[in-house]
Amino acid sequence: MKNSLWVEKYRPTIIKDVIGNEEAKTLFVEWLENKRPTRKAVLLYGPPGVGKTTLVNAAANEYKFRIIEMNASDTRSEKAVTRIADPATSFTGLDKFSSEIKGNMLFMDEVDGIAGNEDRGGVNAIIKIIENTRVPIIMAANDCDLEKLRSLKKLCLLIRFQQTRIPLIILALKKICEQEHIKYEFEALENIATKSQGDVRSAINDLQGLSEEGKTLTEQDTLALGLRNKDISMDDTLQGYFASKNLTEAVILLNSSNVEYDDLLMAISDNIPRRYADPFKLAEAYDYLSQADVFRGRVGVENWHLLKYVYNNLAQAAAVDPESYKSFEFISPPIRVITLFWTKNKRTLLANICTKIGAQCHISKYEAKMIFIPYLRLMLQQKKKAPALIEWLKLTPEEVTFLASLKMF
Q: What is residue 230's predicted lDDT score, i.e. its pLDDT?
């Protein structure tokens, strides 16, 4: 398996190469060519991995638009939305008059990720931008049947995307195998396509994870995909992960485990020094792990399409030196989790004190912790002033004792 992801390597660059959803593609092209002028924006909706973002990128390339991309679930407030979207939709750049660039195209992904009071301003800002736009505005969502999107949908042409049909996914997988010189059994591709449940991106990722250069991909190889939803414990996950003989085994194991991503990252970090005795191999493994951690941060709570990069780097860390593996005793649960468990009472006390300071001084708990607590400790050491301060903040004896003994946090 190469470092480059096949989903990116074989992403279509023209509309006709986007597989499936022919009706949706036709409606989108008609709108883009101004054959449906009654709507200034379009909302593409449907399950993940069926080609919504791919179609937008292919259309931008084919019609020579510059994409201004924005993740609506990350950019929530009216101020944030306006700062990015307003300039992109209000002005005509000089390069629009060149033969290379036709103009801007604003693409707002994951608009269904907007939720809560904070985001009402964000929705209103999007509506204002649509009403005054001079460029095409495209939005994408997995679910558009949400109350918060009702006012937004009235301004948009709604285009529904369905799950991609299995025969089309099989055909796409066959083309990739031919390009990568991968020998395969038809039943293997059929299993991968079927288990993807219409998600093209997932199918391509599974194909890459199971394929090995010089080895025929068999139906037997794909049976492991059936373990995807099996609940595998932390110890079993670590055992299989560190014992992986190659990248393929590591990827399959990671896809099989339901261990929480952050716990898994911490557990692998704790145990890598026990896995690799060679400092150079250890450094290489930590480098892959650090890249996985960076992508986990970018995933946040919304951008799950980036999870493949987390898995790819974790798999690389497991396969730095597969021949050197010797069984060892795992550190589990992660050290950080154990530390948090034993310090829970102290953290709860500190949080309660910061809440009381915040209520009296009208500041955030963070400001109370970082700015006020150090001074409060000093003031409590003054016997004359301490009683009045304790009464004002309504501190309990336990909280006073905790502050007196507090050295760091």
A: 43
